[in-house]
Amino acid sequence: MTQGNSEQEPITFVDNRKIDPETGEIREQAADNGAAAEPAPPAGNGAQQTETLADTIGGELAERTADLQRLTAEYANYRRRVERDRKAAVDAAKASVVTELLGVLDDLDRARAHGDLESGPLRSVADKLVAALQKQGLEEFGSEGEPFDPTLHEAVQHEGSGHDPVIGIVMRKGYRFGDRVLRHALVGVTDGVADLAETADRPTEEASDVDADTNDR
Fold this sequence. Notes:
Blueprint (H helix, E strand, L loop, with lengths): L1 H6 L35 H58 L1 H12 L7 H16 L1 E4 L11 E6 L6 E8 L1 E4 L2 E4 L1 E7 L1 H24 L1
Parallel strand pairs: 2-6
Antiparallel strand pairs: 1-4, 3-6, 4-5
């Protein structure tokens, strides 16, 4: 039995006490539960992840900025279109009202031609009405001596050859509101000064040719 006991492994004791019985100090442990501390990740991986995250954020920011710019441009175009449509509607309404008053202006022109607007309260009313309509944008056209324009004038009679037509007589004034022609002017067309001068010179030239032929004979 003594030989058998001598061949057994020796018994060892591990002192797990946290306080040293001799010194009374707390013992330091290398690691919790005997596990070794894990090594810290390499510094290069963290920098690469930060760079990738920055690229992702930068791309998303650029995309959101482009969307915002596109929405801003669309809204600006929408506001301009609405403002243009609103102005066109207002101008159309004004032109409609002014067109209804053209007959009144014709009556005032006839009264002025007969001398009925030389003095009195009617003259004041006529002047205020014309001034108010002109302030809104009404313009009259068509007067004697102006070049004939078929887009503005309607010729009801014509005298002369018609090479340089001008307005000879105005039978009814024309009116426009901004760029819109409300009514064409009724006019009589005649030849311009250049055509009249050319016509006047022709007999003199023909007489000179006749005299030259006579002298040659």
